[in-house]
User: Which sequence fits this backbone?
């Protein structure tokens, strides 16, 4: 039987678009069979002083789940039975520095329900923010009366979380994909084969449509390795965020900050004298105005990477919130009219999120190339005499 390419592509897109629906549906599958057991309520009472009660209505539960979905986690929870409180997934290693190195499995927390002990120290996983705090044997977390934030000591956390796993997976995937692409070039006389046929057009596009036009023929090769790395790294992390694993790496401000910081450092450490001259002593501008404009131009040096950081973070984070909120409507309506409408809208938005995954990787790469181009551009202005 011969399968046409177009129907196959349609099936593949439909499958990818449904992946986010699976991740949410698994968490609520038992909600319709009766009242859910409050598995975390006892923990909230024993672990927190003045802690907020766990949500009991469907809307509050959906809101709490969406909040947990966009946060990082110390384990992968593939599905759970809300009636019995049983989870299915796998834990990740916890690595803490607190008067010495502490390494143990996150299974010791039992999804935040128990206190973990390591070398005589006790730690608890706060259910509300997903962070680890040092505590006593009873697992008490003290909260600030005004802010409501925990006041317990937080050890240095070097744990392998979901975000870290996704970063390692993206790095390994990139290594094998582009190593294979390079080998196929060597074997076939510069012609890609296998999976490289899909990635080669993207590589050529980044070179011909992003790097060369924005940086120039003379300098673009210096930045190609970084531009290719940042494009595919952001793209793969965005795609991972659409899987049922609930990974939200590029919707994490610390990750986008690190990526923007790399662009900032490369831009400023490779900039030529013309770049700095236009910041601190702009040619063609009256000297009194140069003194006023210099701090503004210097501020722009910091604002550029800041915009990179916020743009990627806000788009991916907002996309996850909107998509999960629409999926949650199916469990709020619980009827034959509202649920199909929510499913259809979530399906369409999931396809849009695939496009956003590519678009945000493109925008981050394009803006990085623009900043690199401005840093190495050779200006030929005749400074006026005033």
Assistant:
């Amino acid at each position: 039987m011969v399968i046409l390419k177009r129907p196959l592509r349609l099936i593949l897109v439909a499958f990818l678009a449904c992946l986010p629906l699976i991740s949410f549906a698994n968490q609520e599958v038992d909600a319709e069979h009766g009242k859910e057991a409050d598995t975390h309520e006892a923990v909230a009472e024993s672990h927190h002083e003045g802690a907020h009660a766990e949500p009991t209505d469907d809307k509050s539960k959906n809101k709490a789940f969406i909040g947990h979905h966009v946060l990082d986690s110390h384990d992968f929870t593939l599905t759970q039975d809300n009636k019995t409180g049983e989870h299915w997934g796998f834990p990740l290693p916890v690595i803490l520095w607190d008067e010495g190195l502490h390494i143990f499995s996150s299974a010791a927390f039992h999804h935040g329900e128990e206190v973990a002990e390591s070398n005589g120290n006790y730690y608890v996983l706060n259910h509300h923010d997903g962070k680890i705090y040092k505590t006593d044997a009873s697992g008490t977390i003290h909260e600030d009366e005004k802010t409501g934030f925990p006041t317990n000591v937080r050890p240095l956390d070097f744990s392998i979380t979901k975000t870290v796993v996704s970063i390692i997976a993206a790095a390994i995937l990139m290594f094998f994909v582009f190593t294979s692409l390079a080998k196929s070039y060597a074997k076939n006389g510069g012609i890609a084969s296998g999976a490289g046929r899909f990635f080669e057009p993207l590589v050529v596009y980044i070179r011909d449509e992003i790097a060369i036009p924005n940086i120039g023929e003379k300098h673009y090769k210096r930045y190609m390795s970084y531009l290719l790395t940042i494009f595919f790294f952001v793209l793969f992390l965005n795609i991972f965020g659409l899987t049922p694993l609930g990974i939200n790496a590029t919707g994490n401000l610390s990750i986008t900050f690190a990526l923007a910081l790399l662009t900032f450092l490369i831009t400023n450490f490779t900039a030529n004298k013309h770049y700095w001259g236009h910041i601190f002593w702009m040619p063609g501008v009256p000297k009194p105005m140069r003194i006023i404009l210099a701090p503004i131009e210097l501020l722009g040096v910091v604002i550029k990477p800041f915009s990179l950081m916020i743009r990627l973070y806000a788009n991916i984070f907002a996309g996850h919130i909107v998509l999960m909120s629409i999926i949650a409507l199916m469990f709020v309506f619980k009827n034959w009219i509202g649920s199909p409408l929510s499913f259809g809208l979530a399906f369409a938005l999931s396809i849009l999120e695939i496009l956003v995954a590519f678009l945000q990787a493109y925008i981050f790469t394009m803006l990085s190339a623009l900043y690199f181009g401005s840093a190495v551009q050779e200006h030929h202005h005749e400074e006026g005499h005033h």
